[in-house]
Design goal:
The structure holds two protein chains of two kinds. Chain A is an alpha+beta fold. Helices cover about 30% and strands about 30% of the residues of chain A. Chain A has a single domain, classed as Nucleic acid-binding proteins (OB fold (Dihydrolipoamide Acetyltransferase, E2P)), CATH 2.40.50.140. The N and C termini of chain A lie far apart (about 45 Å). Chain B is about 50% helix and about 20% strand. Chain B is elongated and about 85 Å long.
Amino acid sequence: MKKIIILLFIFSAISSGLIAQNGKKYGNKLTLKEKTSIAAIQENPEKYVGKTVLVEGLIVDVCEARGCWIDIASDKEFGKMRFKVDDGVIVFPMDEKGKMVVAEGVFEKITQTKEQLIEYGIHYAKEHGTTFDPASITKGKTTYRLKGTGAVVK
Amino acid sequence: MHWRKLLKVLHRDIGYLAVGLTVIYAISGIAVNHISDWNPNYSIKKSTLILDSIPSNSSKDAMVTYVLNAIGETGKLKNSFRPSPTELEIFVEGNTILVNYETKEVTQEKFNSRFLIKETNDLHLNKIKGAWTYIADLFAVALFFLAISGLFLIKGKNGITGRGTWLTLIGFAIPIVYLIVYYLINS
């Protein structure tokens, strides 16, 4: 019995060691070498829709509830891009806010109706403890984001 | 060894091994089940204060130093970002500070991991991936074995041929009936 317990502890220790080594990598391994500037993508978004791109920037926000997205600062002042991952597949801890990330994903176009925007606004306000006025949304809009496949936080 | 005796031995020992993870999964299960009502991983405290003054025309770095001193934040500075011409966001370990130059308003969002609960969630939801995926698979197989073997541990009127039949059927019926009603109402 003692031998079984010792073996279990050794297995756990090795497993956790492997996890620690890969702790800052999220999702799939990055496949691209060449980075694309977020500013370049945002200046001409239609050119990149459907393409896989690798971007780098500062993590300026993290989904508080599920860790299912991060916002990455653009290389152009005041800009940022949403990097959305599937719930549970990649989970970003809040501690990653303020760190640099290299992230890969497929650039996509999201067209939302007025109703969808109101629903999201209510969800966001609840999650962040802020207020939201549904009347402030008068029409739908088109946004762009990266559908994330993998990331490395430095 | 008689098959029922062997089953009892296996049920007992696998049960002992599964106690730790069952407790962890039970705690996390309740925690994440109510995710719409609370944040199961972090405790987040928000506060706002108004500064008496904000230096004009100072660099971003100088502004960061000024604000951190003004609010008495001594945590490790990670980085800063300007989300708009009138705002500055400062990232400190465990705190995000948003400064509005125009209103002199400083909003802080301090967060801490919920001790033990976050760790149980990380294990339960397999956020750590890697080898844990296979340990969790083994645990699932162990739970399956415990459920099935548990049916045949006792014979007689309290066993699966008696009282056990009805209680087991009720156990299956609860999710099935709930799902049928749910789909009927939402179809």
